[in-house]
Each structure stands twice: as structure tokens, then as C-alpha cells.
Amino acid sequence: MPMSILARMPKVSEFYGIRICQYYGEHNPPHFHAQYGDDEILVGISPVRMLEGSASRRVQSLVTEWAAAHADELMENWRRCEAAQAPFPIAPLV
């Protein structure tokens, strides 16, 4: 039975209305998705950088600040997702 869409999109954090997800079976380079309203950006983990998508500068700034503070946890979650294991939750930006 195919994995449901929701099972492929585990949320690892959420802050200020920004949802951070890391998907199973993703392509390189290691990255995560940040969703805010109808906007979505793909953000590289090492180094932290915008890869695709669009969002306001404010959202991009908050996401990159958070990602820089949690880069090690994001990479560990990337490895877990590659191994079809659920990623761990990561503390939100406060």
C-alpha cells in the first residue's frame, strides 16, 4: 500500500505560522521545506541557503535563523528520513 501524502510530510517544527517539514525519499542536496500560507521554500541545510520557491524576506530571515541554530538536528533528521525513519521534532524559534 502506498505511503499516504501526510506520512510523507512529517512536520519537524512550527513557529510564527511557519511549518517546517522534512520528507521521506527526498533528493539531494540535504534540505527541508518551509511553508507559510501559500508560500513554500526549499532550504539547504549545509550551508543554510534558499534553493527554490518564494516567501517574504521576513519569512526567509526567520527560517534561515532557525536553520542555522538547528543545522545538526536537521542533518540528523535528513539521515533518518533517508532511512525511512521518522524525524525528531526540533524546537521552534522563540
Structural write-up:
- By secondary structure, the chain is of the alpha+beta class.
- The chain has one domain.
- It is about 25% helix and about 30% strand.
- The chain has 2 helices and 5 strands, in the order βββββαα.
- The termini are far apart.
Strand count: 5
What proportion of the residues form beta strands (DSSP E)?
25-35%
- The computed structural class is alpha+beta
Task: Round the Cα radius of gyration to an integer and report it.
Answer: 12 Å
The spatial strand order of the largest sheet comes to: 1-2-3-4-5
Report on the biggest sheet: 5 strands, antiparallel
**DSSP summary: helix tally:** 2
Low-confidence stretches: 1-7
First-residue to last-residue Cα separation = 39 Å
Tertiary shape? globular
Short description:
With 94 residues, the chain is an alpha+beta fold. The chain is 27% helix and 31% strand.
Keywords:
disordered N terminus; globular; alpha+beta; five-stranded antiparallel β-sheet; 94 residues
Give the arrangement of secondary structure elements:
Blueprint: E1 11-15, E2 18-21, E3 31-36, E4 39-45, E5 48-54, H1 57-69, H2 71-82
Antiparallel strand pairs: 1-2, 2-3, 3-4, 4-5
